[in-house]
Amino acid sequence: MDLNSASTVVLQVLTQATSQDTAVLKPAEEQLKQWETQPGFYSVLLNIFTNHSLDVNVRWLAVLYFKNGIDRYWRRVAPHALSEEEKTTLRAGLITNFNEPVNQIATQISVLIAKVARVDCPRQWPELIPTLVESVKVQDDLQQHRALLTFYHVTKTLSSKRLAADRKLFYDLTSSIYSFACSLWNHHTDTFLQQICAGNEAAAANSLERTLLSLKVLRKLTVHGFVEPHWNAEVMGFLHAVFERLKQFLECSRSIRPEHICRDRLEKTVILFTKVLLDFLDQHPFSFTALIQRSLEFSVSYVFTEAGEGIVFEQFIVQCMNLIKMIVKNYAYKPSKNIEDSSPETLEAHKIKTAFFTYPTLMEICRRLVTHYFLLTKEELTMWEEDPESFTVEETGGDSWKYSLRPCTEVLFIDIFHEYNQTLTPVLLEMVRSLQGSTNVEDTNAILIKDAVYNAVGLAAYELFDSVDFDQWFKNQLLAELQVSHDRYKPIRRRVIWLIGQWISVKFKSDLRPVLYEAIRNLLQDRDLVVRIETATTLKLNILLFEKKTDQFLPYLESMFTLLFQLLQEVTQCDTKMHVLHVLSCVIERVNMQIRPYVGCLVQYLPLLWKQSEEHNMLRCAILTTLIHLVQGLGADSKNLYPFLLPVIQLSTDVSQPPHVYLLEDGLELWLVTLENSPCLTPELLRIFQNMSALLELSSENLKNCFKIINAYIFLSSSEFLQMYAAGLCRSFCDLLKDITSEGQVQVLKVEYN
C-alpha cells in the first residue's frame, strides 16, 4: 500500500466508518477489514492518528485499528505478519514525539506502544526505554505527561510477563532505571506538596497527576523487579518513605475541600500507596518483615485511635484493615508446631507480630471493631426504612468483601479473633455480660451496641464453642428478645434470629427446635420486611439444612409455607425474590411428598413469576430449581403442571434461544425429573425432544444428562419414541463417537443397547 496515494483513501473510509448511518458504516468496516493484512496499512494509520488537525473520531478509530492489528499481526509467527521493515518504521514513528493533545487517544497510544514493547522490548526495540526516560525529563508539561503515561503502561506490561527469560529481562531493566524512577517520583511529590501549600490549585493538580503516574511505575518495579528486594537499600528506602508520604498526604487532605480539583486524585494516590504495601507483602512476605512493625503501627493508629479522625476515608480504612489482616493471616509468619522446623525468617516475623499484638492493643482493636465499625450507620438505618429490600441485599456483601467497609471489618474481626481467641474471648464475653436483659427501646445507641455485640458473637461462634452455653442463653435471654415487638427493637429481632442461625450448626439441642420453629413462625409475621427476610434466610441456611429429620418441622409446615409464599409475593426486587424462592425450594426438597397439600398457591403463582422475570435469567434459574423440587415432591401428579412445565423446559433447553446460556443446566435437570416422574409418554413430552439434536452437537459437560434423558424416554415408551426419533439419534451418535471420550462412547453404547 503506497503511503501517499493510500492516505487519502484510508482517511475517507475511516471517516465513513465513524458514520451513524449503517448503509455507510458497514461497507467501510468491510473495506478496513480487507486492508488489515495489506503491507503499509498500519503506516498509513500511524500517519492519520498522529495528525492532530484531523477529526478526533477518525483519529480514535485509526488508533483502535492499529492496536487491534498489533494483537493479530505483530508477532513473526502470525498469519499475514507485518514485515520487519514496516515494524521498524512503525516503532520509530510511535516514539518520535509525545504530544498527543486528546487524553483518550493519548491513553490508547500508550497502550499500543506497551503492546509492541511486550513483544519487541528490549531486543528489537532497545531505544524505547532510553527515549522514555529522556522524554519524562523535558520541561513541556504535555510531552512530560504523555511520556510518563507511556512509561507506566510499558512498565505495567513488561512486569506482567512470567517466563523465566522475560523475568530476567525485567529484573535487568528495573536495576537500570530504579534510581531514576525513585528520584522522578520524589521530585513530582515534593513539587505537588509545595504547590498545594502555596494554594496553586491548577499547578498542584498537574503535579499530582505526575506523582500518581510515577508512583504507578515504582509500584510495578518494586513488586516485580527484584528477586530479593530486601537486599536493595533503595527499594527498602522507598518503602519506608511510603509511610512518610502517606502521612503527608493525609495531613494535606485536612486542608483540601471536598470539591477541590485535587481531592479525588489525592485519595487515589493515598490508596495507591497502600496498594504498594499490600502488593509487596503479597509477593515478598519475608522481604516485608522489616516493614511489619511500621505497617501495624501506622494502620492501627489511623484506624483504631483518634489519630485518624477527620482525615481517613472509607477506602483507606479498608486498605489498612486488609494490610493488618494479611499480616495476621500470613502463613509465612506462622511457625510450625515444631519450632525447630520453622525458618529464621518466619520466627523473626512471628516475634514482631507477638510483640505488637499485646493484650491492651488486641482489646482496643476488638472493642473498636465491635462498638464503632460494627454499628449500623445512619445511612444504613435510612436505607432500612426507605428501601428494605436493597438493605438486605447490601448486607449480604456479595463479591465486595475486599472493597466494602462493613464486610471488611467483619473479616478482620474473624481473622484476629481466630488468631488470638484466648486473649479476646474474655473481652467479648464481658461485653455480652454487660448487655444482659432487655434493652430500653428508647435508647437507640444501646440497641445498636447490642446489635453489634451480637454480630461479633455470631461471627466468632466456632471460636466460642467451649465458652458459651448457647442453649441456656437462647432459653434465658434470646428467646425473650425475639418476643419484643416494638418497632425500635427490630434491629435486635433481626440480629438475634441471624445469631441463632450462626450457632445452630455449632451448638443447639434438638429438643429446642420446636420452640425455635414457633419463634420463626412468629417472626415470619413480623411487621418489618427486613426481619422477615432474615428469618427466611435462617430457616433455609441454618435450620432445615442441619436437621436430619423433618419430624419436628412438619407441624409448622403449612403455616410457614404459607407465610413464605406471602413473602415471595410481597417482595419486588429480583434478588430478594430469588432469595425467598430458594427458601421455598429448600422446604419443598426437605419434606418431599408431604408438601403436596400446600403447593397449590405456589403452582398458580409460578407461571406469572416466570413471565415477569423474562429479563432476569438468574431469577428464572431459581424458578427452575423450585420446579425440580416441586416435580419430585408431586411425583406422578406433576403431570398437572405440564401446560406450564413443558414450555419452560422447551425454552430452557433450546440452544437457539439466548437464555439457554443461563438456563440449560437446570432446564435439563428439570426435563429429566419430569420424565422420571411421568406416568406415561404424552405427545407434548415427545415434541420437546426436538431440542435434543442440537444439544448433542454441543458435546458439552451436559452430555451425561442428555443420555439420561434419552434413556428415560426409552424406558417410558421405547416403540413410540424410537419410531419418531431413532434415525436422527443414530446420525447424532455417529457424529458424537468421533469426538467424545471413551466414557462418552460407553454411554452411547448403553443407549443403543437399551
UniProtKB/TrEMBL annotation:
Keywords for the protein's UniProt record, in alphabetical order: Acetylation, Cytoplasm, Nucleus, Phosphoprotein, Protein transport, Repeat, Transport
Keyword presence, Manganese: no
Pfam families with a match to the protein in the record: IBN_N, TPR_IPO11
Location of the Importin N-terminal domain: 28-100
Cellular compartments annotated: Cytoplasm; Nucleus
Keyword flag Ubl conjugation: no
Gene Ontology molecular function terms on file: small GTPase binding
Main location: cytoplasm
PANTHER family associated with the record: IMPORTIN-11, IMPORTIN-7, 8, 11
Protein name from the UniProt record: Importin-11
Organism of origin: Furnarius figulus
